[in-house]
Amino acid sequence: MSILLKIIAGLLAVIGVLAIVIAILGRSGARPEAGLQSLVLALVLAAVAKLLDHAAAIRKQLDHIQTQVDEIRWDRGRTSGQP
Q1: Could you read off the pLDDT tens digit of each residue along the chain, which spans 83 residues?
Q2: Residue 60 and residue 2: Cα distance in Å, rounded?
Q3: What are the sequence ranges of the domains in the chain?
Q4: Which of 9, 28, 68, 74 has the most other CB atoms within 10 Å of its CB?
């Protein structure tokens, strides 16, 4: 999911830069604001993708911690004679 968001953000950034360049060159009736909107949307999507990456990393760490806790509980139960 985050890879798709990063790809879309990259494409929007390119579109935004092109729209700003076209508006600055005055080749059409385009306004620079449209390009800025694309750039802002690209930044938002990139930020969301980064948050998803961080959430996945945190989830992976929590799963690892849970596995360690389960192993400790199992070892403690085995050494104390409990089933």
Answers
A1: 668 878 888 888 888 888 777 777 776 666 777 778 878 888 888 888 888 889 989 999 999 999 999 999 998 887 765 55
A2: 16
A3: 2-79
A4: 9
